[in-house]
Write a structure and sequence with these properties.
The complex is a heterodimer of chains A (about 300) and B (about 280). Chain A is an alpha/beta fold and about 300 residues long. Chain A has two domains: about 10-230, P-loop containing nucleotide triphosphate hydrolases (Rossmann fold); about 235-309, Alpha-Beta Plaits. Chain A has helices at about 50-55, 75-80, 100-110, 120-130, 145-155, 175-190, 200-210, 225-230, 245-250, 275-285, 300-309, and strands at about 10-20, 20-35, 35-40, 65-70, 85, 160-165, 195-200, 210-215, 220-225, 235-240, 260-265, 265-270, 290-295. In chain A, the strands form three sheets. A six-stranded mixed β-sheet of chain A has the order 5-6-7-3-8-9, sandwiched between helices. In chain A, strands 11-12-10-13 form a four-stranded antiparallel β-sheet, covered by helices on one side. A three-stranded antiparallel β-sheet of chain A has the order 2-1-4, with helices on one face. In chain A, strand 1 (about 10-20) and strand 2 form a beta hairpin. In chain A, helix 3 (about 100-110) packs across helix 4 (about 120-130) and helix 4 (about 120-130) packs across helix 5 (about 145-155). Chain B is mostly helical and about 280 residues long. The longest helix of chain B has about 35 residues, at about 110-145. Chain B is elongated. Chain B starts with a helix and ends in a 5-residue tail after the last helix. Classes of the chains: A alpha/beta (about 300), B mainly alpha (about 280). Chains A and B meet through helix 2 and helix 3 of A and helix 1 and helix 6 of B.
């Protein structure tokens, strides 16, 4: 039995799960602390959804322990779930019912304030996710984005402390993706919620997560703050400059700059983070026309490096 | 919270068009039978009682509201399980198929409570179907054909029940028929937990009813030991209330066997639902 951590919202230790002969999880460990925006990163089939489903008691682990708010499902399932809001995979609703009735059905069994439906709260949530005016429409006529918004509304309706979102931006248009990102940041920064976000999209995690776990083939590969993990490796920069040969010559003189590679008319270099301003200045002073000097997707490199190793 | 879950389940049942198929089917079928008997019922009764005319002098019309209700129930009550299973087989599997089960199970409500809420809502729907069948059968029959004594033809003879001695028999018959239908409803709900589409549990429920009915009617000795314990053997037990004297031991035994079926099926359903991985 693991000792409960007072700041830990989720403590997962040594999770194993098999579906038939397929080992979906082979030892997943992580801890989510209060106020985290926790990114759960891994390629498709890595075990992200299975882990989240175990955390939500949708699936029972073959081995390992899960504690939420210091409690276990064996002892206090209802107390745990009354403090959790979630969207797993995609939000599904009864298509033959209106958005409001769907929310009422879920509110009635969401527990925090008993079975009485708080219609004022439902109204607030519908406004919050921008579905005002459509609340009496049947959900079967809703687009994927609208269902996703309704999913957010049902996840937040009972004012949970912990929000689990499994691939929340899948299938959304660019504006929808931005809206969800802003919402997650708002939930964390303004409302003090703990958010766990699973995604196979590196950008998504990099942009909003404060801490993250990389899972691969059912195992925890690396856990830490996004900043820590990114600083574990040098920065790769893409340089578009004319003439490129002159730019390369200038950079070869700079201390700490290495790994020169030309790709599609651009130069890729590896550089210590604190050298970036000096390099820019040196290139300009040498008369090089600097078109762009931008970081390569650092997390992507890091992720591929971990996964491939 | 349990009551809230039952309310939710009943709201869902009430909102689905398929829930009204059963009520509509009963209305249409009773209407057709009543109309046919209204137009040509006397010749039907003459045909049925033709063998009795040598032994009895039958005066007046035997066709009345009570006989009609009895005929309607005899004809329809074997089809009602299909109408019940149409809805109850969908209660878990339908939600699994649409993904709403996932949302429901992540609410602070135990899986046992959720299963029981679905079972209770299914039981209420079954009661509604049976009450509607009773109202259609008795209500329309009495309105069209009026009251009168009930002549029942049993395998061991003819029984004439006095007008004032009939209603309690119908009510008790309905109660026993309800236990039989509740067994079907619980069976289909239990099977529903094993599936992710509602067609499967419904077909399996009907297949089991057909199989057990065949076993019950096939005059083969090898089935003799199990025949009394099949729920289908007791589905027509409601007719026992239209005998005189009442075979109370047989009625009690049928009720006990049906109740045991219900509790065993509930146990299996809850046990499985609590261990079920929600993967879709």
């Amino acid at each position: 039995m693991m000792p409960p951590n007072s700041d830990a919202v989720i403590e997962v230790r040594d999770l194993y799960k098999k579906f038939g002969s397929i080992e979906a999880l082979r030892g997943v460990d992580f801890t989510v602390f209060k106020g985290d925006v926790y990114g759960f990163l891994g390629p498709n089939g890595a075990g992200k959804s299975t882990s989240l489903r175990i955390i939500l008691d949708l699936i029972r682990a073959d081995r390992g322990t899960v504690r939420l708010f210091g409690m276990s499902y064996q002892e206090q399932r209802n107390q745990i779930l009354s403090r959790v809001g979630c969207i797993i995979e995609k939000p599904d609703f009864h298509g033959y019912l209106s958005a409001q009735t769907n929310l009422e059905l879920l509110a009635r069994v969401s527990g925090a304030k008993g079975p009485k439906v708080d219609r004022k709260r439902i109204r607030e949530m519908i406004d919050f996710v921008g579905l005002s005016g459509r609340e009496h429409d049947r959900v079967k006529g809703f687009s994927h984005g609208m269902k996703q918004r309704l999913g957010i509304a049902q996840a937040l309706m009972h004012d949970p402390d912990l929000i689990l979102l499994d691939e929340p931006t899948t299938g959304l248009d660019p504006q929808g993706i931005i809206d969800i990102r802003m919402l997650i940041l708002k939930l964390s920064r303004e409302m003090g919620k703990t958010v766990v976000l699973s995604s196979h999209l590196l950008t998504e995690i990099e942009l909003i997560a404060t801490r993250m776990l990389i899972v691969h083939k059912g195992q925890s590969v690396r856990e830490g703050s996004v900043r820590e993990l990114l600083h574990e490796q040098p920065l790769h920069m893409y340089l578009d400059a004319r003439p490129l040969a002159q730019a390369e010559a200038v950079l070869r003189q700079m201390p700490g700059v290495e790994w020169f590679e030309q790709k599609e008319g651009r130069l890729i270099i590896q550089i210590p983070r604190d050298q970036v301003p000096h390099c820019s200045r040196a290139l300009i002073e040498a008369g090089v026309q600097l078109h762009s000097f931008e970081p390569h997707r650092a997390l992507e490199d890091y992720f591929l490096q971990l996964v491939n190793s | 919270m349990f009551i809230a879950a039952v309310v939710n389940e009943f709201i869902k049942i009430a909102a689905k068009p398929r829930s009204y198929l059963g009520l509509a089917a009963i209305t249409v079928l009773v209407g057709v039978i009543e109309l046919a008997m209204y137009l040509d019922g006397e010749s039907y009764v003459r045909f049925v009682t033709s063998g009795l005319e040598q032994s009895f002098d039958l005066q007046g019309s035997l066709l009345n509201g009570h006989l009609m209700a009895f005929i309607v129930l005899q004809l329809l009550i074997i089809h009602v399980p299909l109408l019940v299973a149409l809805v109850t087989a969908d209660l878990i599997s339908g939600e699994a198929a649409t993904g709403t089960l996932r949302m429901l199970i992540t609410r602070p409500l135990s899986r046992t409570a959720l299963w029981m809420a679905k079972c209770t809502a299914g039981a209420l729907y079954t009661l509604l179907i049976l009450v509607w069948l009773g109202l259609c059968a008795l209500g329309i029959s009495m309105a069209l054909f009026g009251s009168g004594d009930l002549v029942v033809l049993n395998s061991d003879g003819i029984l004439i029940l006095q007008q004032g001695d009939i209603l309690w028999r119908f009510l008790n018959g309905f109660a026993l028929a309800y236990l039989a239908l509740l067994t079907v409803s619980t069976l289909s709900l239990t099977l529903s937990g094993f599936s992710s589409n509602s067609l499967g549990p419904m077909v399996v429920t009907m297949a089991l009813i057909i199989l057990f009915t065949l076993i019950g009617t096939l005059d083969v000795q090898v089935f003799d030991p199990i025949r009394p314990f099949l729920f289908t053997t007791h589905m027509a037990a409601w007719r026992s209330f239209f005998e005189d004297p009442l075979r109370t031991n047989d009625i009690a035994s049928s009720a006990v066997i049906l109740v045991v079926h219900i509790f065993v099926l509930m146990g299996v359903g809850i046990w499985h639902f609590n261990r079920k991985d929600i993967t879709i």
